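Technical annex, item 7. During the second reporting period the consortium partners agreed on a shared format for inverse folding records so that results from different sites could be compared directly. Each record opens with the tokenized structure and is followed by the designed sequence. A conforming record, contributed by the partner at site C, is shown below for reference.
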């Protein structure tokens, strides 16, 4: 039977071939990489992006500054790796919310949006790193989003899939297809390259429209730009979420 033999430290792949277990050196390296990223996140939370430095991390971990370059050749590389981990964490939160919402895609969409907001409000420093003013490492991270396995793409996938299910079930109102083909289609190539060329233009538009709405409202809350207007941003969020989700129903626009 295929599996893992921990006693003999022999791994067996699904194809039945024997794979060597990670060596002690490899395990230590993996552990150190994780510790470096954890320390970078701690510095981010306590001091903001400017507090993250390879020298500061090395000092906290009891390493020499040159030694840390064996793990990350630059601060930008570390920031890019940390961003990937944060997107993976956020994706897990969103994915769990979708799974717990049942089979109704409208309920799934609402649950995922709420999960995104909850994580963002609870982790403002992390939100600012991956979705705020981009640092050089974040720019590099975003430039690689044409890979379907990129953590940023993985984060968006359950939203795209759910919006596509709603379109296939009952096409919702969108701008005229001729207008989108003329003005928007060519500019959607990066998005469609990562999510699949078979994604209809209408679905891609609805995804981006919804993301702009969701991200804009959440970012204003995270960065405290709504205090002048509303005492409870959550109440406003729920109203906006209701209005957004309502466009996907046959009775869109009705009370």
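Designed sequence (site C submission):
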């Amino acid at each position: 039977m295929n599996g893992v033999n921990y006693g003999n430290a022999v791994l067996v792949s699904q194809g039945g071939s024997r794979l060597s277990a990670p060596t002690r050196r490899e395990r230590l390296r993996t552990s150190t990489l994780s510790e470096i990223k954890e320390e970078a996140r701690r510095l981010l939370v306590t001091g903001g992006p400017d507090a993250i430095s390879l020298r500061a991390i090395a000092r906290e971990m009891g390493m020499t500054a040159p030694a840390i370059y064996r793990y990350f050749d630059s601060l930008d590389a570390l920031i890019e790796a940390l961003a990937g981990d944060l997107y993976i964490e956020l994706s897990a939160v969103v994915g769990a919310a979708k799974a717990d919402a049942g089979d109704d895609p409208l309920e799934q969409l609402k649950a995922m949006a709420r999960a995104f907001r909850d994580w963002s409000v609870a982790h403002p420093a992390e939100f600012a790193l991956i979705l705020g003013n981009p640092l050089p490492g974040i720019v590099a991270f975003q430039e690689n989003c044409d890979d379907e396995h990129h953590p940023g793409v993985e984060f968006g996938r359950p939203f795209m899939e759910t919006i596509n299910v709603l379109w296939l079930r009952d096409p919702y109102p969108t701008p005229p297809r001729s207008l989108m083909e003329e003005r928007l289609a060519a500019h959607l190539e990066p998005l469609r390259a990562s999510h699949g060329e078979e994604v209809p233009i209408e679905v891609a538009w609805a995804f981006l429209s919804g993301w702009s709405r969701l991200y804009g409202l959440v970012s204003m809350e995270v960065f405290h730009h709504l205090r002048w207007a509303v005492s409870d941003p959550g109440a406003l969020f729920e109203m906006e979420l209701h209005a957004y989700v309502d466009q996907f129903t046959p009775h869109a626009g009705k009370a």
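Residues 56 and 226 are 35 Å apart (CA to CA). The chain has twelve helices and three strands. All partners now use this format for quarterly exchanges.
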